[in-house]
Write a structure and sequence with these properties.
Layout lengths: L3 E10 L2 E11 L4 E5 L6 H9 L6 E6 L2 E2 L10 E4 L11 H11 L4 H14 L15 H13 L5 E5 L7 H18 L2 E6 L2 H7 L2 E6 L2 E6 L1 H6 L2
Parallel strand pairs: 3-8, 3-9, 6-7, 7-8
Antiparallel strand pairs: 1-2, 1-4, 4-5, 9-10
Helix pairs in contact: 2-3, 2-4, 3-4
The chain binds adenosine-5'-diphosphate (2 copies).
GO molecular function, one term: ATP hydrolysis activity
Keywords: ATP-binding, Cell membrane, Membrane, Nucleotide-binding, Transport
Protein name: ABC transporter ATP-binding protein
Length: 225
């Protein structure tokens, strides 16, 4: 289990400061929610941690090591996007296997790991389907399986439930939390839904206009505002 620390992380697009000296300490194994209104910089911060955006100031420490400037594939970080970004022409099995094929994992190990990942998300019977033959919740589980199969040290979730209807969202929230507890992966969960953050997170940060306004447990932030 690894920690994630942001030290004075700043980012501007042109003259627009999107992140202003963000300092965050995320503990090993923690389920950490990043809450804030649309446009507050949540996705931008997540993409910086993932290494997708190289233009950054300050320091990003993962497991105590400075990963500033390291490319995504050297960070051992898994990210799940809002729209899942599954390959429509590939089967569920091949979607989940993709990251392992890229990493040249040998066949026997690949089969074992893809099988285990699909089992973890309850989709063992769906390997030969295509994404458009699945429900929204099932597609969400494929996206999760595809990410956990690479055994990331840190799991980044960018509004992963926002495309689901309310009932499914509440159900998937519980599934996600149970999965995170089982795997123990340090997890950063981005949402603009306060209830979602409060019902899942060990701790949360409230971001507004690129500034971290508050950090604490849901109880500390909302029982005594
Ligand atoms: P959130 O995830 O909280 O909705 P974002 O991180 O997506 O917020 O965006 C924060 C701000 O940065 C917004 O004002 C957005 O318009 C701006 N922004 C995001 N990406 C870019 C980009 N590639 N170029 C210019 N501005 C951007
Ligand atoms: P080979 O190349 O030896 O025929 P692969 O391992 O490449 O076998 O698998 C071929 C296809 O079969 C894959 O694209 C995948 O869709 C599917 N597949 C392989 N193993 C499984 C499995 N255990 N469950 C579901 N689908 C599988």
């Amino acid at each position: 289990k690894v920690s994630v620390h942001c030290r004075n992380v700043r980012l501007s697009y042109g003259r627009t400061e999107v992140l202003k000296d963000v300092n965050l300490d995320i503990e090993p194994g923690e389920f950490f929610a990043l809450l804030g209104p649309s446009g507050s910089g949540k996705s931008t911060l997540l993409r910086l941690i993932a290494g997708f955006n190289p233009h950054q100031h300050g320091q990003l420490l993962v497991d105590g090591k400075d990963v500033t400037g390291l490319p995504p594939w050297e960070r051992n970080i898994g990210m799940v996007f809002q729209n899942y970004a599954l390959w429509p022409h590939m089967t569920v099995w091949d979607n989940v296997a993709f990251g392992l094929v890229e990493r040249r994992v040998e066949k026997a190990a690949l089969r074992q790991r893809v099988g285990a990942a699909l089992e973890t998300v309850g989709l063992s019977a769906y390997g030969q389907r295509r994404p458009n033959q699945l429900s929204g919740g099932q597609q969400q589980r494929v996206a999760l399986a595809r990410t956990i199969v690479i055994e990331p040290q840190v799991l980044l979730l960018d509004e992963p439930l926002s495309n689901l209807d309310k009932t499914l969202r509440v159900q998937m929230r519980q599934e996600l939390l149970a999965l995170q507890r089982r795997l123990g992966i340090t997890t950063i969960f981005v949402t603009h839904d306060q209830e979602e953050a409060m019902t899942t997170a060990d701790r949360m940060a409230v971001l507004d206009k690129g500034v971290v306004q508050q950090v604490g447990t849901p109880a500390a932030l909302y029982d005594h505002p």
